């Protein structure tokens, strides 16, 4: 067993006097022994998903700490286990990640270099600062998403657990754990069963309001739950007789009565009896109630009487520090020299107040003693000592994060500028480790100091930013106050504040207000980059609105801005990105739109100002650039951009809506490309993120719409409808925000799949009217005209054909192969005979030149079916086979089944005759195979073909996989003579 925490903790007060036995806890101890035995036995047998959660709860002093000490003893006796221990502290509850640091820092700091890399993976820069292995980032603007820190912790513990398994994680006083640690522990409790880990938690039912849902979640997941009950009179009598063999029965009975059977109170009372030299007989029983009240209350007079003024001041300093107390730090806080501090520690150990750990640090024997001593500090003294503690911790090399919790306890109102600076730095560090609530507390305290008048608006701005990821409503209110405050923000910071406010408003769905705010401020701002930034934001938010009063006029303003802005300025590329998006949605030349998109890049890459995590412009503009590429058949470039978004958001620790939106973008690109299972996976991952963010968000609509489209393409119409029902995917959709791709068109497709053609016609016709009003004719963004033709076919065939022709005409304006091919396929669906064949042949030709493999498969199968209808079955066969294989590659199960059915109905073989296995090899693989048959080793093959050895090995693996044989059978599988080709030469 590796005890990863700093040695055994002091047992509950009085444990030495009554021995190791815990009275009336036999059932609980058996439960612990069974849980530890099960964990170790099943791990030894190869089990990994064997985790369990064990909880102990009860009132203060009921014996939880003693019980956990026994858990540590039982688990520690197993040579094959690792025990991690931490304890919550009421004084340190506002120190973020404190308990996780106490748990994980010893074991993580003990990893060798190779293990460290494997355990942390790509999460090093996110998790290491949170657990105290690295200092917070120096990047002032950096703000980690708390969810990302939790995700990183999940990864780290998942990698760590098997390496240190079986793992026993013990947390005492869970009710006093800091919120950041508790939130992760609650989520980890859900996943613990997937790992070789036993979690053991103990707590009182005294959780703060915001922690109660987490406590309920933990209790619900516990496989073994034990509520510790008071001791009965017999057990209390046994404890009394252990201290006073001569105690009479009446005295023992009164001890039980006044302590209500609480072990801690019982031991504390007996200590008072001994200190008072009280004889344990019935005549003295009336005095027990007063002694018990004094021992339980343990106020200032009690401790002063026990310890004296010098020793009690050291005890106060220790109580301020909480757990893992350094003697030199406590001594500096209470202004005691080394000799006096040593004497104070000796007295406190003798009085069973403090205990020493093997590493030399001190700890209170029981959490209740620590609480009692802390509460005995006079309020004015306590405030001054907290201020001293902050200074001493900083001077002794401690972190500002630790010192800041003491600063929060000092009285504001002195206008101390140094205090404000420290609190602002602490807030920045808290943001950098993913603790925005702690940052908010620091900045609120800084405002109450207060800061200098000229700094107040800036501190308020920082407070607003601290709430950005967790409380957008509070952020908006604070930003408004900062903007309106006099003296106000600097011009640059005012632009930043307005931009942030518009961002919060826009992401809540109110794009019109966000756009108006930016326009109003742009008219006030002096000429320069700030003004252009606000104007571009105004035009962007207007473009992203669901409805727009004058879309062509706004597009004209964007064109004018492209011409007006200095082409070498930082603002030029965002303007070009917006211009490229307009060109794309207008459905004009695809070449022109791609040229504009390229002009927004630098050497084919996003400029720094348009980076996914750059806060100058945020993620909307790079997203629109990527969608320009996706809409215009440059899907490889789009996927490259979107994969970089996922990576950058993960590195930056943005695991909420940002990463959910990146999953949407990648899922949509995969859908356009025809990689349907991958698209579904990305979109469902995004929806899981969106679900925990709330309901009715634009992100949810985007994800749900793209997932419905993907499921329809896979032929899983019933599942698509279930998603629509779950997310209430129906008009009026989102009231204000533009959704991508056009959700009304997707809803129309969904109605067609359910046979509700009349409603589909109504929905799609309204969509066309709305988009035409804006001048948006892109048939990729919204192929409404083609699907309107499909919906109308059974209701008004001439109008259906007219709409089909209109869809083709719109698509030809763009010149995009996928747009034209898809429009032709849809137009052909309302025709029969030779004209349908003609349209589909052209469709297949266009789609064959595009990356839209699903649409290509669909057109091939449609063409095959049309050829069968006109009696050209033999010609149809090859198209159906190609379409069926491509549909299978895309994961379009419904299309594949349809192709088989058409083949069967035409009297053709439903499956293509198997080609020789060697025909499945591409030329590069065949070249490697020919040399491998000659028994050449991979290194020689690499030299012959002038290829890297790794590439040769990959191609050899593909050869063996495709041919289904090892080296010995390679010649036969390739149809070569037994001695292989070219043996003579």
UniProtKB/TrEMBL annotation:
<dbReference type="InterPro" id="IPR011990">
    <property type="entry name" value="TPR-like_helical_dom_sf"/>
</dbReference>
<dbReference type="GO" id="GO:0006355">
    <property type="term" value="P:regulation of DNA-templated transcription"/>
</dbReference>
<dbReference type="InterPro" id="IPR036388">
    <property type="entry name" value="WH-like_DNA-bd_sf"/>
</dbReference>
<dbReference type="InterPro" id="IPR016032">
    <property type="entry name" value="Sig_transdc_resp-reg_C-effctor"/>
</dbReference>
<feature type="domain" description="Orc1-like AAA ATPase">
    <location>
        <begin position="24"/>
        <end position="200"/>
    </location>
</feature>
<dbReference type="GO" id="GO:0005524">
    <property type="term" value="F:ATP binding"/>
</dbReference>
<dbReference type="GO" id="GO:0004016">
    <property type="term" value="F:adenylate cyclase activity"/>
</dbReference>
<dbReference type="InterPro" id="IPR027417">
    <property type="entry name" value="P-loop_NTPase"/>
</dbReference>
<dbReference type="GO" id="GO:0005737">
    <property type="term" value="C:cytoplasm"/>
</dbReference>
<keyword id="KW-0067">ATP-binding</keyword>
<keyword id="KW-0547">Nucleotide-binding</keyword>
<dbReference type="Pfam" id="PF13191">
    <property type="entry name" value="AAA_16"/>
</dbReference>
<dbReference type="GO" id="GO:0003677">
    <property type="term" value="F:DNA binding"/>
</dbReference>
<protein>
    <submittedName>
        <fullName>Putative regulatory protein</fullName>
    </submittedName>
</protein>
<dbReference type="InterPro" id="IPR041664">
    <property type="entry name" value="AAA_16"/>
</dbReference>
